[in-house]
Amino acid sequence: MNTEEITRVRKLSQAYAYTSIQMHETIGREAGLSGTDHKYLGFLLQKGQMTAGELSNLTGLTTGAVTGLIDRFEKKKLVKRRFAEDDRRKVLIEPNTKNIMALLEPLYKEFRRQSEELIASFSSKELKVIETYFSKAIEIMTETTNKLNNK
Q: What positions does the domain HTH marR-type occupy (predicted)?
């Protein structure tokens, strides 16, 4: 691959990332959340219940910022705080998947349909290339994030 091709694909990747941020900010706003709050809800949906400390480590937010985040989610009935059964000093943040999905699903419905239609338009071989790119790009981003967080 020549330098021109690498630059073209890198710029497309950047444009994808920036457009994703814009879309998620807009969806968050439509849901009554900030774009980042909306994405942090995604962590809770994906990973399930966790402590505030675990959410802080995952997001890179301070524990104080996570407390504010949880307060905002709780006010909207998107999460619930509950004590861990094995240690009542430990507070778990439990996502209310039903409420979260009721809030976000209508906002993603058309995007999801079009995305799935786009994915279905590629051959199995092409999908493997796309999958490889995303998997390796995620590894690189995770590595970069971890390095910067552990300075």
A: 2-139
Beta bridge partners of 51: 92
Sort residue 95 into left (φ over 0), alpha (ψ -120 to 50) or beta: beta
pLDDT in tens, 8-25: 999 999 999 999 999 999
Note the pTM of the prediction, 2 decimals. 0.82
Domain total of the chain: 1
Tokens of 79: 């999460």
CATH of the domain at 90: 1.10.10.10
In this structure, are residues 62 and 53 in contact, taking their beta carbons and an 8 Å threshold?
no
82 CB-near residues (< 8 Å, 6+ apart): 91, 92, 94
Cα→Cα distances 133→10, 43, 148, Å: 12, 22, 22
Average pLDDT rounded to a whole number, residues 127-149:
94
Domain that holds residue 71: 3-99
Cα of 129 vs its chain's centroid, Å:
23
Question: Which residue type, as a one-letter code, is found at position 27?
Answer: I
